[in-house]
Amino acid sequence: MLIRNVVIALIVCVSVQGCRKGKPEKNEEPLARVYDKFLYVSDIAGLVSDNTSPEDSARIVDDYIDNWIRQNLILRVAEDNLQTAMAKINQQADEYKESLVLYAYERQFLAENLDTVVAEDSLRSYYDLHKQDFTLQGDIYRLAYAVVSKDDKTADSVSYWLNRGLEKSRLALERYCVNHADRFSLNTDIWLNENDLFTLLPYDMYAGGRFRSKAPIAFSDTVNRYFAMVADFYVEGDTGPFAYFRNDIKDIIINKRKKELLNDTYQRIYQEGLKRDNAELLKKEE
Questions:
Q1: What are the helix (H) ranges across the chain?
Q2: Cα(229)–Cα(186) distance, rounded to whole angstroms?
Q3: What is the pLDDT of residues 96-123, one digit of tens each?
Q4: Computed from CA positions of residues 80, 86, 90, 93, in that sequence, does the dihedral angle turn out positive or negative?
Q5: Helix, strand, or coil here: 230?
Q6: What is the CB neighbour count within 10 angstroms for residue 143?
Q7: Exposure string (b/e) for 185-212, b if CB count within 10 Å is 16 or more?
Q8: Would you tell me how many other CB atoms lie within 10 Å of the CB of residue 110?
Q9: Quick one: which of 86, 65, 62 has its CA closest to 75?
Q10: pLDDT tier at 25 (50, 70, 90 boundaries)?
Q11: Considering Cα of 81, then 87, then 88, then 94, what sign does the dihedral take?
Q12: What is the rounded distance in angstroms from the CA atom of residue 4 to the CA atom of residue 58?
């Protein structure tokens, strides 16, 4: 209650000076005026939270009002000195507002009406019909990897299990990695591109095309030992597998639906507008 009293007292104090000229439009006490523009109490609703101290509340309100006056005085001077450009500026502002309104409408309309469920056979069918569009721009891999501290004397166990075969040693390897590896993944179902790979393993381990093989790979630096085994790979220029492009294909299909839905809707709005005489083309007589 004390905070609110302080803020109200400040508002009344400022409003006495702010009402000397002009006529307020709203049925409430104004806080400040710049020419014929007024700042009202309702304009600063929520500016100060209830847990703010009285001193801070007064300072926040006072600073806001002062900044509002400064900004609007500067804006008025700018408008007075840009008379020849104001028409263009107002046009750009109207066009920007229209764009924002249309964008907001499209987002709401699509959220309510767009079908985003794409059947798996539709995804596969699109891939089969457009394989020429899915040429790889770089190598991709499915692999298992583990990173173990160089100080860990048991790290050779990883090489042993990978040489035996990932499927035969998966359980033992997973138990080991949980207790010894700094990071690891034995999930060979996920396709990784080169950029993904460089965030997981050192570039020098990858260099020389070493990952274009399904044999176990080992590499060391001054800190860690790195182990990897490629389950499958495709090289740059190949047609990539469906699984790698699946999410991209889904986005393509949904984006196509978006365009079709919006085009059909806008065409319907246009036709109904003409039919109901809400719009007409006015031709000048020749």
A1: 2-18, 54-80, 83-113, 120-129, 156-164, 166-180, 194-200, 203-206, 242-275
A2: 9
A3: 999 999 999 999 999 999 999 999 999 9
A4: negative
A5: strand
A6: 24
A7: bbebeebbeeeebeebbbeebbeeeebe
A8: 16
A9: 86
A10: low
A11: positive
A12: 10
CA angle 248, 195, 187 (to 5 degrees): 75
Instruction: Name the one residue in this structure whose structure tokens are 């690891």.
Output: 184
The count of residues in the chain is 286
Q: What are phi and psi of 142, to 5 degrees?
A: -115, 120
Tokens representing 179?
């207790």
- Residue 281 burial by CB count (10 A; 0-12/13-18/19+): exposed, middle or buried? exposed
Distance CA 7, CA 40 (A): 13
Q: What is the pTM of this model?
A: 0.72
Q: Crossing angle, helix 166-180 and helix 156-164, to 10 degrees?
A: 160
Q: Supply the DSSP symbol for 135.
A: B
- Give the list of residues 6+ apart from residue 163 with CB closer than 8 angstroms, or none: 216
Candidates 24, 57, 17; CA nearest to 40 is 24
Cβ atoms 157, 218 nearer than 8 A: no
What CA–CA distance (Å, rounded) separates 64 from 37? 16
Topology annotation, domain 136-234: Chitinase A; domain 3 (3.10.50)
User: Would the CA dihedral through 9, 11, 14, 20 be positive or negative?
Assistant: negative
Nearest to 139 by CA among 210, 75, 215: 210
Angle at 35 between CA 33 and CA 37, to 5 degrees: 55
* Domain spans of the chain, in order of start: 2-81, 120-128+241-275, 136-234
pLDDT tens for each residue of 42-72:
999 889 988 999 999 999 999 999 999 999 9
**Would you state the structure tokens that stand for residue 221, as one six-digit string?**
């630096």
